[in-house]
Amino acid sequence: MKPNDRPKRTVDVKCFLTKNGIREAHLVKGQGCFCFEGKATNNWISHTVEVLFLSDLTFDQWMRTFKAMNDNPANNAIIRKSGGKSAS
Predict the structure, then answer these.
(1) Domain boundaries, position 75
(2) What's the CA gap between 47 and 81, in Å, rounded?
(3) Which of 6, 33, 62, 73 is found 20 to 30 A from 12 (Cα to Cα)?
């Protein structure tokens, strides 16, 4: 599986994420969207990626989407509750 390949199964995205250091996260199919789930996303406010088909994004795009959602302070419930300060 290469970064510019398009996944056929959600488990393939999970494997790609794991190979790139993102553990405890997986992708599930929703109605007209996909959602990141797992321990790594427990504090996220939004888990949803609005694409109709898994193959709409490449493996690299799925990984960059995960990282963007994970690194966005506005998507972290703990940071939002503490007024923008990380709860360490």
Answers:
(1) 10-81
(2) 18
(3) 73
Domain presence at residue 1: no
Q: What global pTM score does this model have?
A: 0.87
Looking at the 3D structure of the chain, how many domains does it have? 1
For each successive 10 residues of the chain (88 residues), what is the average pLDDT?
96 97 96 96 96 98 97 86 56
pLDDT recorded at residue 79? 73
Q: Which two tokens stand for residue 87?
A: 């709860």
CB 6 within 8 A of CB 57: yes
DSSP classification of residue 4: T
Q: Is residue 86 part of a domain?
A: no
List the structure tokens of 29. Answer: 């199919």
Map residue 57 onto helix, strand or coil.
Answer: coil
Q: Is 2 a member of any domain?
A: no
